Amino acid sequence: MPDLDDELMKQCQQGNMEAFDLIVRRNQVLLVNFIARFLGDSDSAEDLAQETFVRMFKAIQRYKSGAAKFSTWMYHIASNLCKNELRNRGRRGRFFVDSVTTESSSGSEPIEEDLIATAPAHVSLQPTNQLEQKEREHAVQSAISELPERYRLPLVLRDLQELSYEEISETLTLPLGTTKSRINRARLMLKDKLRSFVESS
Amino acid sequence: MNCLKVEEQFSAYLEDELGYQAVRAFETHLSTCEACRRELTLFRESLDLLHQLPQIEPSAEFDAALQARLADTQVESIPFWQRVLQPLHGQTRLALSGIAVLLVILAGFYFYQKTLTKSPSVDTAVAPETAKRVPLAEERVSEQQLPLAVPNQEPQSIVNFPEPSVLDLQPVRGSQQPQSPMSNLQQLRGSQQPQSPASDMQPARENQQPQRLEQNYILRTIKRTEAPTGGGL
C-alpha cells in the first residue's frame, strides 16, 4: 500500500504546493502531540511543530521518495528540533514546569491548578471524573518528563505515536536492538516513577 | 532465568516477540517469583496509563500562524549534480561515484608522470643559469690565483718519456705541487701540445703525470752528474 504522504510529497516536488497543505492537515495533530509530550510543554509544541513544517517545506526538493518512510523523515526533523530546544533551555538555565493538559491549548478551559483552586468545597459537587483525569494526566506527563532524553524520545515515539521499532530505529538512527532495549528500559523507569500513583489509586 | 533477565523481557513478552522456549522460561520464572509477577502487573498498568493519555488538539491559530511562516519561506533548490544523481538507485550511484574517484586518481597519476618526464628539461633550463653563475665566480678567483694555478693545470703529455722505474711509482700525496725548475718547461709543453680529450676522464693520472716527468728529469740529472765522478775514480 503506497504511503499517501509520500505521494503528496512527490506532487509537491512537481510544483503542486496545495499538496503540502494536505500534508500539514494530516500530520499537525501528530506532530503537536509528539512534541508536547516529549517536551511537556504545549506552548512550545505548536511553535516547534510549525518550525518542523517550515523545514519540511524548505527541503521538499531534497526529500527522497522511497529512501525512508515519510513519517520517519518528519519525526527525524521534529526530534532534532526538540533536542535543540532542550539544549537551549539547559543553556539558558530555564527551569521547566510541565504545562501540558488537553484543554490548555484551546485557552477556553481552565488548567489543572485552576480546577483545583476553584473546585467547590463540597465533594459531591466536584467534577470527579474530570479532576481524576487531569490528575492522572499530570502524573503520567511528569513521569515522562523526568525520563532522560535518550529514553524519553523512543518511548514517546513507540507508546504515544505508535511507530514500529523499525521506524523508531530509522528515525533516531539507532540499531534495532538498542532501540528495543531503550524502550523497555524507559518503560521500566516509567513504572517505577508511577508506582506510588498506581498503588494509591 | 533470574529476575533481571525477566525484567529485560517484559516488553517482548507483552508484545509477543519472544520465542516458544523463551516464553516457557519466562512463565516458569513468574510462577515461582511473586516479586516479578507484581512488577509485571505494575509495568502493564503504567503502560495502560501512558496509552490513555488524551490527544492534544492544536489551537485555532495554528494554521494561520503556519501559513504566515510558510509565506516567507522559499523551497531550497538542490545543486544540478544532486538532481542528476537523485533518481539513480543506490548501487548505480555507488558505481558512478567509484568511477569518478578512479578517474580522479588516474588523472592525478597521469599529471604526476607528466611532471616527472618534464623534470630533466627543467634541469637543463636551470643549468645555463648555474653555468653562467659558476664561471663568474671562478673568473673572480682565477684572476687572483692565475700564476699559482697554471703549473697545476699540466695537460696530459703525449711525448714518449722513459717508463718510470719502481722508485717513480711512489704514491703522490697532496695535490699541491712544489715550485720546481720543471714548472716553466711544463708550462711550455702545455701550451704547445693539444689537450687530450681523455684527460677529462682521468683526473688521477692528470695529477700523477707531471710528478713522474719531474722525477724522471731529476733522475737523469743525477745520473749525468754522477757518471763523470764515478768514471774519474
Explained architecture:
The complex is a heterodimer of chains A (201) and B (233). In chain A, helix 7 packs across helix 9 and helix 8 crosses helix 9. In chain A, 33% of the residues are buried. About 10% of the residues of chain A have low confidence. Chain A is built from nine helices and no strands. Helices cover 70% and strands 0% of the residues of chain A. With 201 residues, chain A is mainly α. The C terminus of chain B is likely disordered. By secondary structure, chain B is mainly α. In chain B, helix 3 packs across helix 4. Chain B is elongated, with a radius of gyration of 52 Å. At the A-B interface, helix 2, helix 3, helix 6, helix 7 and helix 9 of A face helix 2, helix 4 and helix 5 of B.
Taken from the alpha-carbon principal axes, the silhouette of chain A is globular
Q: How many strand segments of chain A? A: 0
Question: Main beta sheet of chain B, described?
Answer: none
Largest sheet of chain A: none
Q: Provide the structure class of chain A.
A: mainly alpha
Percent strand of chain B: under 5%
What letter string, H or E per element, gives the SSE order of chain A? HHHHHHHHH
Number of alpha- plus pi-helical segments of chain B: 9
Most residues in contact: chain pair: A-B, 52 and 37 residues
Low-pLDDT stretches of chain B are 122-132, 146-151, 164-185, 188-204, 229-233
Features:
heterodimer; A: 201 residues; mainly alpha; B: 233 residues; 9 helices; elongated; disordered C terminus
Short description:
Chain A has 201 residues and is mostly helical. Helices cover 70% and strands 0% of the residues of chain A. In chain A, helix 3 packs across helix 4 (70-92) and helix 6 (128-146) crosses helix 9.
Question: What layout of secondary structure does this protein have?
Answer:
The complex is a heterodimer of chains A (201) and B (233).
Chain A: H1 4-13, H2 18-39, H3 42-58, H4 70-92, H5 112-117, H6 128-146, H7 149-160, H8 165-171, H9 176-200
Helix pairs in contact in A: 1-2, 2-3, 2-4, 2-7, 3-4, 4-8, 6-9, 7-9, 8-9
Chain B: H1 3-8, H2 10-14, H3 20-32, H4 34-51, H5 62-71, H6 80-85, H7 90-152, H8 182-192, H9 203-232
Helix pairs in contact in B: 3-4
